[in-house]
Amino acid sequence: MSQSAKTQNKQLKTQNSLWLSVILCLLCLGNGCRIAPGGFFGDVTPPPRQQLVFANDSEPHSLDPHKIQGVPDMNVTRELFEGLTVAAPKTLEPVPAGAASWESQQAGQVWIFHLRPTARWTDGQPVTAGDYVYAWQRALNPETGSLYGILLGDVRNAEKFSTEIDETTGKSKHDASILGVTAVDDLTLRVELERPAPYFLQLTSHSVFAPVPRKAIEAFGPAWTRPEHIVSNGPFKLISHRINDEIVLSPNPGYWDAGSVKLKEVRFLPVKGETAINLYKAGEVGVMMSGMIPRAFMSALKTKADFYSGANFSTYFYSFNTRKAPFDKPEVRQALSLAVNKQEITDKLLAGGQIPARTFVPPGVVGYQSPSGAEFNPQTAQKLLAQAGFPQGKGFPRCTLLFVTDDTSRQIAETVQRMWQENLGITIELQNEEWNTLGTRIGAGEFDLCQELWVGDYVDPKTFLDLMQSKNSSNHAGMNDPVYDSLLDQANRAETPAQRLHLLTEAETYLLERAPVLPLYHPPVSYLKKPYVQGFELNTGDFHQLKFVSIKEKLQ
Question: Are residues 419 and 347 in the same domain?
Protein backbone atom coordinates (compact mmCIF):
# COMPACT_ATOMS: atom_id res chain seq x y z
CA MET A 1 0.00 0.00 0.00
CA SER A 2 1.37 3.44 -0.91
CA GLN A 3 1.99 6.09 1.76
CA SER A 4 -0.94 8.18 0.46
CA ALA A 5 -3.24 5.14 0.57
CA LYS A 6 -2.11 4.38 4.12
CA THR A 7 -2.83 7.97 5.12
CA GLN A 8 -6.30 7.88 3.55
CA ASN A 9 -7.04 4.55 5.25
CA LYS A 10 -5.96 5.94 8.64
CA GLN A 11 -8.03 9.09 8.16
CA LEU A 12 -11.04 6.96 7.26
CA LYS A 13 -10.54 4.87 10.40
CA THR A 14 -10.34 8.04 12.51
CA GLN A 15 -13.51 9.42 10.90
CA ASN A 16 -15.31 6.13 11.52
CA SER A 17 -14.23 6.21 15.17
CA LEU A 18 -15.56 9.73 15.57
CA TRP A 19 -18.87 8.83 13.90
CA LEU A 20 -19.11 5.80 16.17
CA SER A 21 -18.57 8.10 19.15
CA VAL A 22 -21.37 10.40 18.02
CA ILE A 23 -23.79 7.51 17.41
CA LEU A 24 -23.01 5.87 20.76
CA CYS A 25 -23.36 9.20 22.52
CA LEU A 26 -26.82 9.78 21.02
CA LEU A 27 -27.91 6.22 21.88
CA CYS A 28 -26.59 6.62 25.40
CA LEU A 29 -28.46 9.88 25.92
CA GLY A 30 -31.62 8.50 24.37
CA ASN A 31 -31.63 5.40 26.56
CA GLY A 32 -30.70 7.19 29.77
CA CYS A 33 -27.26 5.53 29.63
CA ARG A 34 -28.26 2.20 31.17
CA ILE A 35 -25.12 0.42 32.37
CA ALA A 36 -25.41 -3.09 33.76
CA PRO A 37 -23.85 -3.47 37.23
CA GLY A 38 -20.63 -5.41 37.81
CA GLY A 39 -18.28 -6.83 35.22
CA PHE A 40 -16.31 -4.65 32.80
CA PHE A 41 -17.60 -1.62 30.97
CA GLY A 42 -17.76 -2.23 27.24
CA ASP A 43 -15.52 -4.17 24.87
CA VAL A 44 -12.44 -5.68 26.53
CA THR A 45 -10.94 -7.33 23.45
CA PRO A 46 -7.16 -6.75 23.53
CA PRO A 47 -5.74 -4.86 20.54
CA PRO A 48 -4.01 -7.04 17.92
CA ARG A 49 -0.57 -5.87 19.00
CA GLN A 50 1.03 -3.97 21.87
CA GLN A 51 -0.95 -0.79 21.26
CA LEU A 52 -2.29 1.53 23.95
CA VAL A 53 -4.77 4.32 23.23
CA PHE A 54 -5.26 7.12 25.76
CA ALA A 55 -8.19 9.47 26.16
CA ASN A 56 -5.97 12.43 27.11
CA ASP A 57 -8.59 15.13 27.76
CA SER A 58 -7.25 18.02 25.67
CA GLU A 59 -4.76 18.98 22.99
CA PRO A 60 -1.45 19.60 24.78
CA HIS A 61 -0.35 23.21 24.97
CA SER A 62 3.19 22.15 24.05
CA LEU A 63 5.50 19.13 23.78
CA ASP A 64 8.44 21.27 24.90
CA PRO A 65 9.21 20.17 28.51
CA HIS A 66 9.81 23.83 29.40
CA LYS A 67 6.56 25.09 27.88
CA ILE A 68 4.11 22.51 29.26
CA GLN A 69 1.09 23.83 31.14
CA GLY A 70 -0.84 20.87 32.46
CA VAL A 71 -1.47 17.14 32.78
CA PRO A 72 -2.29 16.46 29.07
CA ASP A 73 1.11 17.95 28.17
CA MET A 74 3.01 16.00 30.83
CA ASN A 75 1.37 12.70 29.91
CA VAL A 76 3.15 12.96 26.55
CA THR A 77 6.43 14.69 27.46
CA ARG A 78 7.02 12.17 30.25
CA GLU A 79 7.37 9.49 27.55
CA LEU A 80 9.51 11.53 25.15
CA PHE A 81 11.98 13.05 27.60
CA GLU A 82 13.57 11.27 30.53
CA GLY A 83 15.32 12.99 33.41
CA LEU A 84 17.69 11.74 36.05
CA THR A 85 15.02 9.56 37.67
CA VAL A 86 11.54 8.21 36.97
CA ALA A 87 8.77 7.63 39.50
CA ALA A 88 8.12 4.03 40.55
CA PRO A 89 4.67 2.92 39.34
CA LYS A 90 3.10 2.28 42.77
CA THR A 91 5.10 4.27 45.32
CA LEU A 92 6.35 7.15 43.11
CA GLU A 93 9.76 6.74 44.73
CA PRO A 94 12.52 8.01 42.41
CA VAL A 95 14.32 5.15 40.65
CA PRO A 96 17.40 5.42 38.41
CA ALA A 97 16.80 6.56 34.84
CA GLY A 98 19.11 9.03 33.09
CA ALA A 99 21.28 8.77 36.17
CA ALA A 100 22.50 5.28 37.01
CA SER A 101 23.36 6.32 40.58
CA TRP A 102 23.84 9.34 42.83
CA GLU A 103 24.99 10.45 46.24
CA SER A 104 24.36 13.48 48.40
CA GLN A 105 26.92 15.52 50.29
CA GLN A 106 26.92 18.32 52.85
CA ALA A 107 23.71 17.13 54.54
CA GLY A 108 21.81 17.03 51.27
CA GLN A 109 22.85 20.44 49.98
CA VAL A 110 25.01 18.95 47.20
CA TRP A 111 24.03 16.10 44.87
CA ILE A 112 26.30 14.19 42.49
CA PHE A 113 24.57 12.29 39.68
CA HIS A 114 26.40 9.66 37.62
CA LEU A 115 24.85 9.46 34.15
CA ARG A 116 24.43 6.34 32.04
CA PRO A 117 27.11 6.03 29.36
CA THR A 118 24.56 4.21 27.14
CA ALA A 119 21.95 7.02 27.19
CA ARG A 120 21.39 8.42 23.68
CA TRP A 121 19.33 11.04 21.90
CA THR A 122 17.19 9.82 19.04
CA ASP A 123 19.76 11.26 16.62
CA GLY A 124 22.35 8.84 18.06
CA GLN A 125 24.33 11.41 20.05
CA PRO A 126 25.16 10.67 23.70
CA VAL A 127 23.20 12.41 26.48
CA THR A 128 25.76 14.30 28.56
CA ALA A 129 25.85 16.27 31.78
CA GLY A 130 26.16 19.38 29.62
CA ASP A 131 22.69 18.66 28.20
CA TYR A 132 21.24 18.81 31.71
CA VAL A 133 23.10 22.03 32.47
CA TYR A 134 21.76 23.64 29.29
CA ALA A 135 18.21 22.40 30.00
CA TRP A 136 18.07 23.64 33.58
CA GLN A 137 19.51 27.01 32.58
CA ARG A 138 16.91 27.27 29.81
CA ALA A 139 14.05 26.34 32.16
CA LEU A 140 15.09 29.11 34.56
CA ASN A 141 15.80 31.69 31.86
CA PRO A 142 13.05 34.37 32.07
CA GLU A 143 12.98 34.52 28.27
CA THR A 144 11.78 30.91 28.15
CA GLY A 145 8.74 31.70 30.27
CA SER A 146 8.57 28.23 31.78
CA LEU A 147 5.55 27.70 34.01
CA TYR A 148 7.28 24.87 35.87
CA GLY A 149 10.74 26.43 35.99
CA ILE A 150 9.92 27.41 39.56
CA LEU A 151 10.46 23.76 40.54
CA LEU A 152 14.17 24.36 40.00
CA GLY A 153 14.03 27.14 42.59
CA ASP A 154 16.06 25.20 45.18
CA VAL A 155 19.13 25.21 42.93
CA ARG A 156 21.73 27.70 44.13
CA ASN A 157 21.13 31.21 42.70
CA ALA A 158 18.07 30.06 40.72
CA GLU A 159 15.91 32.91 42.02
CA LYS A 160 18.57 35.52 41.37
CA PHE A 161 19.08 34.30 37.83
CA SER A 162 15.39 34.01 36.95
CA THR A 163 13.97 37.13 38.62
CA GLU A 164 16.59 39.86 38.40
CA ILE A 165 15.82 41.18 34.92
CA ASP A 166 17.49 43.89 32.90
CA GLU A 167 14.65 46.35 32.13
CA THR A 168 16.19 47.32 28.79
CA THR A 169 16.78 43.86 27.34
CA GLY A 170 14.26 41.81 29.33
CA LYS A 171 17.03 39.27 30.00
CA SER A 172 18.56 38.04 33.22
CA LYS A 173 21.19 40.35 34.65
CA HIS A 174 23.33 37.34 35.49
CA ASP A 175 25.39 34.85 33.55
CA ALA A 176 24.06 31.30 33.77
CA SER A 177 27.36 30.21 35.33
CA ILE A 178 26.11 31.46 38.71
CA LEU A 179 23.61 28.59 38.83
CA GLY A 180 24.49 25.66 41.06
CA VAL A 181 24.45 23.07 38.29
CA THR A 182 27.71 22.06 36.60
CA ALA A 183 29.05 19.30 34.38
CA VAL A 184 32.07 17.85 36.17
CA ASP A 185 32.60 15.75 33.03
CA ASP A 186 30.31 14.26 30.36
CA LEU A 187 28.89 11.69 32.77
CA THR A 188 28.92 13.55 36.10
CA LEU A 189 26.41 16.25 37.07
CA ARG A 190 26.93 18.28 40.23
CA VAL A 191 23.95 20.12 41.75
CA GLU A 192 24.29 22.63 44.58
CA LEU A 193 21.15 23.70 46.42
CA GLU A 194 20.46 26.86 48.39
CA ARG A 195 19.57 24.64 51.34
CA PRO A 196 18.85 20.95 51.93
CA ALA A 197 15.53 20.03 50.28
CA PRO A 198 14.11 16.66 51.43
CA TYR A 199 11.91 16.43 48.32
CA PHE A 200 14.57 17.31 45.74
CA LEU A 201 15.16 13.79 44.44
CA GLN A 202 11.39 13.39 43.87
CA LEU A 203 11.48 16.47 41.65
CA THR A 204 14.05 15.05 39.27
CA SER A 205 11.45 12.83 37.58
CA HIS A 206 9.39 15.88 36.54
CA SER A 207 9.48 16.79 32.84
CA VAL A 208 10.97 20.22 33.49
CA PHE A 209 14.12 18.53 34.90
CA ALA A 210 14.68 16.46 31.74
CA PRO A 211 17.45 17.34 29.27
CA VAL A 212 16.46 19.00 26.00
CA PRO A 213 18.37 18.98 22.67
CA ARG A 214 20.24 22.26 22.27
CA LYS A 215 21.10 21.77 18.58
CA ALA A 216 17.50 21.11 17.55
CA ILE A 217 16.18 24.04 19.59
CA GLU A 218 18.72 26.46 18.14
CA ALA A 219 18.19 25.14 14.61
CA PHE A 220 14.38 25.15 14.50
CA GLY A 221 13.23 27.49 17.26
CA PRO A 222 9.62 26.94 18.39
CA ALA A 223 9.16 24.34 15.61
CA TRP A 224 11.71 21.99 17.16
CA THR A 225 8.97 19.76 18.68
CA ARG A 226 7.43 18.92 15.30
CA PRO A 227 7.80 15.25 14.33
CA GLU A 228 10.24 16.05 11.52
CA HIS A 229 12.55 18.03 13.84
CA ILE A 230 12.21 16.66 17.36
CA VAL A 231 15.13 14.96 19.11
CA SER A 232 14.34 13.21 22.39
CA ASN A 233 15.84 10.73 24.86
CA GLY A 234 12.87 8.94 26.47
CA PRO A 235 11.53 5.41 26.06
CA PHE A 236 9.30 6.55 23.18
CA LYS A 237 9.74 8.82 20.16
CA LEU A 238 7.25 11.04 18.36
CA ILE A 239 5.90 9.58 15.09
CA SER A 240 3.08 11.99 14.24
CA HIS A 241 1.14 14.87 15.77
CA ARG A 242 -2.10 16.01 14.22
CA ILE A 243 -3.45 18.97 16.19
CA ASN A 244 -6.80 18.21 17.90
CA ASP A 245 -6.72 14.69 16.40
CA GLU A 246 -4.01 12.43 17.82
CA ILE A 247 -0.39 12.09 18.91
CA VAL A 248 1.35 8.82 18.03
CA LEU A 249 4.49 7.47 19.73
CA SER A 250 6.55 4.36 19.06
CA PRO A 251 9.43 2.79 21.02
CA ASN A 252 12.79 4.55 20.86
CA PRO A 253 15.23 1.83 19.68
CA GLY A 254 18.19 3.83 21.00
CA TYR A 255 16.78 4.13 24.52
CA TRP A 256 19.21 2.77 27.14
CA ASP A 257 16.55 0.39 28.52
CA ALA A 258 14.80 -0.42 25.23
CA GLY A 259 14.47 -4.09 26.17
CA SER A 260 12.05 -3.19 28.97
CA VAL A 261 9.68 -1.27 26.70
CA LYS A 262 6.84 -3.58 25.66
CA LEU A 263 4.35 -1.26 23.98
CA LYS A 264 4.76 -0.95 20.20
CA GLU A 265 2.53 2.10 19.76
CA VAL A 266 0.93 4.71 22.02
CA ARG A 267 -1.82 7.04 20.79
CA PHE A 268 -3.03 10.07 22.75
CA LEU A 269 -6.48 11.34 21.76
CA PRO A 270 -7.61 14.85 22.85
CA VAL A 271 -11.06 13.64 23.91
CA LYS A 272 -12.98 13.76 27.18
CA GLY A 273 -16.47 13.52 28.65
CA GLU A 274 -19.11 11.49 26.84
CA THR A 275 -16.97 11.22 23.70
CA ALA A 276 -14.20 9.54 25.69
CA ILE A 277 -16.70 7.34 27.55
CA ASN A 278 -18.16 6.06 24.30
CA LEU A 279 -14.78 5.42 22.67
CA TYR A 280 -13.75 3.50 25.77
CA LYS A 281 -16.96 1.46 25.76
CA ALA A 282 -16.50 0.62 22.07
CA GLY A 283 -12.96 -0.65 22.76
CA GLU A 284 -11.31 2.20 20.86
CA VAL A 285 -9.61 3.52 24.02
CA GLY A 286 -7.65 1.49 26.59
CA VAL A 287 -7.26 4.08 29.35
CA MET A 288 -9.48 7.03 30.24
CA MET A 289 -7.38 9.31 32.42
CA SER A 290 -8.38 10.50 35.88
CA GLY A 291 -10.82 13.38 36.24
CA MET A 292 -12.47 12.78 32.86
CA ILE A 293 -15.50 10.71 33.88
CA PRO A 294 -18.68 12.84 33.66
CA ARG A 295 -20.64 13.08 36.89
CA ALA A 296 -23.74 11.50 35.33
CA PHE A 297 -21.78 8.29 34.65
CA MET A 298 -19.92 8.05 37.94
CA SER A 299 -22.39 6.13 40.09
CA ALA A 300 -22.85 3.42 37.44
CA LEU A 301 -19.17 3.13 36.52
CA LYS A 302 -18.05 2.86 40.16
CA THR A 303 -19.44 -0.69 40.18
CA LYS A 304 -17.31 -1.79 37.23
CA ALA A 305 -14.23 -4.01 37.52
CA ASP A 306 -12.24 -1.65 35.28
CA PHE A 307 -12.93 1.43 37.45
CA TYR A 308 -10.04 2.46 39.71
CA SER A 309 -10.13 5.03 42.49
CA GLY A 310 -7.86 6.13 45.32
CA ALA A 311 -6.35 9.08 47.17
CA ASN A 312 -4.87 11.89 45.10
CA PHE A 313 -2.54 14.68 46.20
CA SER A 314 -4.48 17.47 44.50
CA THR A 315 -6.84 20.40 45.06
CA TYR A 316 -9.62 21.79 42.85
CA PHE A 317 -10.00 25.50 43.62
CA TYR A 318 -11.07 28.93 42.38
CA SER A 319 -8.57 31.79 42.23
CA PHE A 320 -9.61 35.38 42.92
CA ASN A 321 -7.81 38.01 40.86
CA THR A 322 -6.54 40.03 43.82
CA ARG A 323 -5.23 42.72 41.46
CA LYS A 324 -8.77 43.72 40.51
CA ALA A 325 -11.63 45.22 42.55
CA PRO A 326 -13.57 44.00 44.43
CA PHE A 327 -11.28 41.01 44.99
CA ASP A 328 -8.46 43.22 46.18
CA LYS A 329 -10.35 43.28 49.51
CA PRO A 330 -9.71 40.27 51.78
CA GLU A 331 -13.20 40.63 53.29
CA VAL A 332 -14.78 40.05 49.87
CA ARG A 333 -12.67 36.94 49.24
CA GLN A 334 -13.40 35.59 52.72
CA ALA A 335 -17.13 36.25 52.29
CA LEU A 336 -17.31 34.37 49.00
CA SER A 337 -15.33 31.49 50.50
CA LEU A 338 -17.54 31.13 53.59
CA ALA A 339 -20.72 31.28 51.49
CA VAL A 340 -19.91 28.02 49.65
CA ASN A 341 -21.18 24.75 51.08
CA LYS A 342 -18.40 22.41 49.96
CA GLN A 343 -19.97 19.38 51.62
CA GLU A 344 -23.02 19.77 49.40
CA ILE A 345 -20.80 19.92 46.31
CA THR A 346 -18.90 16.75 47.16
CA ASP A 347 -21.76 14.69 48.58
CA LYS A 348 -24.76 15.70 46.47
CA LEU A 349 -23.32 17.04 43.22
CA LEU A 350 -20.15 15.03 42.60
CA ALA A 351 -20.60 11.95 44.78
CA GLY A 352 -17.39 10.38 43.55
CA GLY A 353 -15.21 10.19 46.66
CA GLN A 354 -14.15 13.86 46.66
CA ILE A 355 -13.12 15.38 50.02
CA PRO A 356 -14.37 18.91 50.89
CA ALA A 357 -11.32 21.18 50.93
CA ARG A 358 -11.04 23.33 54.03
CA THR A 359 -7.32 23.73 53.40
CA PHE A 360 -5.20 24.34 50.32
CA VAL A 361 -2.70 21.53 50.99
CA PRO A 362 -4.35 18.09 50.59
CA PRO A 363 -4.15 15.56 53.43
CA GLY A 364 -1.52 12.86 53.36
CA VAL A 365 1.79 14.57 54.23
CA VAL A 366 3.45 12.70 57.10
CA GLY A 367 4.25 15.02 60.02
CA TYR A 368 2.35 18.02 58.66
CA GLN A 369 -0.34 19.54 60.90
CA SER A 370 -2.98 21.07 58.63
CA PRO A 371 -4.79 24.22 59.80
CA SER A 372 -8.40 23.69 60.86
CA GLY A 373 -9.77 25.77 57.99
CA ALA A 374 -13.08 27.63 57.94
CA GLU A 375 -16.48 25.91 57.88
CA PHE A 376 -19.48 26.92 55.76
CA ASN A 377 -20.87 30.02 57.52
CA PRO A 378 -23.22 32.23 55.48
CA GLN A 379 -23.98 34.53 58.44
CA THR A 380 -20.32 35.47 58.89
CA ALA A 381 -19.99 35.73 55.11
CA GLN A 382 -22.81 38.30 55.00
CA LYS A 383 -21.18 40.39 57.75
CA LEU A 384 -17.82 40.37 55.95
CA LEU A 385 -19.42 41.42 52.65
CA ALA A 386 -21.17 44.29 54.45
CA GLN A 387 -17.86 45.35 56.03
CA ALA A 388 -16.39 45.46 52.53
CA GLY A 389 -19.11 47.93 51.47
CA PHE A 390 -21.65 45.58 49.87
CA PRO A 391 -24.46 44.99 52.41
CA GLN A 392 -26.76 42.21 51.18
CA GLY A 393 -24.78 42.31 47.93
CA LYS A 394 -25.89 45.83 47.05
CA GLY A 395 -23.50 47.63 44.73
CA PHE A 396 -21.43 44.50 44.06
CA PRO A 397 -19.87 44.98 40.60
CA ARG A 398 -20.37 42.74 37.59
CA CYS A 399 -17.88 39.85 37.75
CA THR A 400 -17.31 36.65 35.82
CA LEU A 401 -16.15 33.17 36.83
CA LEU A 402 -14.01 31.59 34.10
CA PHE A 403 -13.97 27.79 33.85
CA VAL A 404 -12.96 25.03 31.44
CA THR A 405 -15.47 23.67 28.94
CA ASP A 406 -16.84 20.43 30.36
CA ASP A 407 -20.08 19.38 32.01
CA THR A 408 -18.73 18.75 35.50
CA SER A 409 -16.94 22.10 35.70
CA ARG A 410 -20.11 23.83 34.53
CA GLN A 411 -22.26 22.05 37.11
CA ILE A 412 -19.84 23.02 39.89
CA ALA A 413 -19.76 26.63 38.67
CA GLU A 414 -23.55 26.80 38.49
CA THR A 415 -23.86 25.36 42.00
CA VAL A 416 -21.38 27.88 43.45
CA GLN A 417 -23.10 30.68 41.51
CA ARG A 418 -26.41 29.70 43.12
CA MET A 419 -24.87 29.61 46.61
CA TRP A 420 -23.43 33.11 46.19
CA GLN A 421 -26.82 34.37 45.01
CA GLU A 422 -28.74 32.72 47.85
CA ASN A 423 -26.28 33.44 50.66
CA LEU A 424 -24.85 36.82 49.67
CA GLY A 425 -27.31 38.31 47.18
CA ILE A 426 -24.69 38.69 44.44
CA THR A 427 -24.74 37.38 40.88
CA ILE A 428 -21.51 36.12 39.35
CA GLU A 429 -21.67 35.50 35.61
CA LEU A 430 -20.23 32.33 34.12
CA GLN A 431 -17.98 31.93 31.10
CA ASN A 432 -16.34 28.77 29.77
CA GLU A 433 -13.28 28.34 27.53
CA GLU A 434 -11.45 25.40 26.00
CA TRP A 435 -8.36 24.24 27.92
CA ASN A 436 -5.65 26.06 25.95
CA THR A 437 -7.60 29.32 25.72
CA LEU A 438 -8.41 29.13 29.41
CA GLY A 439 -4.75 28.67 30.29
CA THR A 440 -3.72 31.62 28.13
CA ARG A 441 -6.31 33.93 29.68
CA ILE A 442 -5.49 32.88 33.23
CA GLY A 443 -1.76 33.30 32.60
CA ALA A 444 -2.39 36.81 31.27
CA GLY A 445 -4.57 37.71 34.28
CA GLU A 446 -7.65 38.19 32.08
CA PHE A 447 -10.22 37.02 34.63
CA ASP A 448 -12.10 37.99 37.78
CA LEU A 449 -12.37 34.48 39.21
CA CYS A 450 -11.11 31.31 37.55
CA GLN A 451 -11.15 27.56 37.99
CA GLU A 452 -7.85 25.81 38.70
CA LEU A 453 -6.62 22.34 39.62
CA TRP A 454 -3.21 21.61 41.06
CA VAL A 455 -1.73 18.14 41.39
CA GLY A 456 1.29 18.07 43.67
CA ASP A 457 4.58 17.61 41.86
CA TYR A 458 5.95 15.94 44.99
CA VAL A 459 4.42 14.95 48.33
CA ASP A 460 5.18 18.00 50.44
CA PRO A 461 3.16 21.10 51.47
CA LYS A 462 5.65 23.28 49.61
CA THR A 463 4.39 22.19 46.18
CA PHE A 464 1.06 23.91 47.02
CA LEU A 465 2.14 26.76 49.27
CA ASP A 466 4.80 27.97 46.83
CA LEU A 467 2.04 28.64 44.28
CA MET A 468 1.03 31.77 46.19
CA GLN A 469 4.57 33.07 46.60
CA SER A 470 4.70 36.55 45.05
CA LYS A 471 7.25 35.69 42.32
CA ASN A 472 5.79 32.32 41.33
CA SER A 473 4.62 32.29 37.71
CA SER A 474 1.74 30.00 38.73
CA ASN A 475 0.48 32.57 41.25
CA HIS A 476 -2.51 33.44 39.07
CA ALA A 477 -4.35 35.03 42.00
CA GLY A 478 -1.63 37.70 42.06
CA MET A 479 -1.06 37.42 45.80
CA ASN A 480 1.84 39.70 46.74
CA ASP A 481 2.22 39.55 50.49
CA PRO A 482 5.60 40.10 52.24
CA VAL A 483 4.36 38.39 55.40
CA TYR A 484 3.49 35.21 53.51
CA ASP A 485 6.72 35.29 51.51
CA SER A 486 8.67 35.70 54.74
CA LEU A 487 7.01 32.65 56.32
CA LEU A 488 7.93 30.53 53.30
CA ASP A 489 11.49 31.86 53.43
CA GLN A 490 11.76 31.04 57.13
CA ALA A 491 10.52 27.52 56.42
CA ASN A 492 13.18 27.14 53.72
CA ARG A 493 15.85 28.12 56.23
CA ALA A 494 14.52 26.02 59.14
CA GLU A 495 17.12 24.04 61.02
CA THR A 496 15.02 20.91 61.57
CA PRO A 497 12.31 19.11 59.56
CA ALA A 498 9.82 19.60 62.42
CA GLN A 499 10.49 23.33 62.56
CA ARG A 500 10.12 23.55 58.79
CA LEU A 501 6.71 21.84 58.81
CA HIS A 502 5.55 24.03 61.71
CA LEU A 503 6.42 27.17 59.74
CA LEU A 504 4.64 25.80 56.68
CA THR A 505 1.53 25.30 58.83
CA GLU A 506 1.80 28.95 59.90
CA ALA A 507 2.12 29.96 56.24
CA GLU A 508 -0.98 28.00 55.23
CA THR A 509 -2.96 29.39 58.18
CA TYR A 510 -2.08 32.91 57.03
CA LEU A 511 -2.91 32.01 53.42
CA LEU A 512 -6.38 30.78 54.36
CA GLU A 513 -7.00 34.00 56.30
CA ARG A 514 -6.04 36.16 53.31
CA ALA A 515 -8.09 33.86 51.01
CA PRO A 516 -6.58 34.54 47.57
CA VAL A 517 -7.98 31.14 46.58
CA LEU A 518 -11.15 29.24 47.36
CA PRO A 519 -10.31 25.52 47.79
CA LEU A 520 -13.38 23.48 46.87
CA TYR A 521 -12.39 19.83 47.10
CA HIS A 522 -9.59 17.31 46.91
CA PRO A 523 -10.31 15.02 43.94
CA PRO A 524 -9.59 11.30 44.07
CA VAL A 525 -7.71 9.47 41.37
CA SER A 526 -10.52 7.85 39.36
CA TYR A 527 -10.06 6.37 35.93
CA LEU A 528 -11.08 3.55 33.61
CA LYS A 529 -8.54 0.97 32.47
CA LYS A 530 -9.14 -2.08 30.31
CA PRO A 531 -8.19 -5.39 31.97
CA TYR A 532 -5.62 -6.08 29.27
CA VAL A 533 -3.56 -3.01 30.32
CA GLN A 534 -0.83 -4.28 32.67
CA GLY A 535 1.55 -2.24 34.85
CA PHE A 536 -0.60 0.92 34.90
CA GLU A 537 -0.72 1.29 38.69
CA LEU A 538 -2.93 3.36 40.95
CA ASN A 539 -0.86 5.97 42.83
CA THR A 540 -1.42 9.23 44.72
CA GLY A 541 0.11 11.45 42.03
CA ASP A 542 -1.67 9.84 39.08
CA PHE A 543 1.73 9.64 37.34
CA HIS A 544 2.24 6.77 34.92
CA GLN A 545 5.46 5.87 33.11
CA LEU A 546 4.57 3.79 30.08
CA LYS A 547 7.89 1.94 29.94
CA PHE A 548 6.38 -0.16 32.75
CA VAL A 549 3.11 -0.82 30.88
CA SER A 550 2.23 -3.68 28.53
CA ILE A 551 -0.80 -5.27 26.87
CA LYS A 552 -1.94 -8.74 27.92
CA GLU A 553 -2.89 -10.15 24.56
CA LYS A 554 -5.06 -12.99 25.88
CA LEU A 555 -7.55 -12.64 28.73
CA GLN A 556 -8.68 -15.74 30.60
Answer: yes
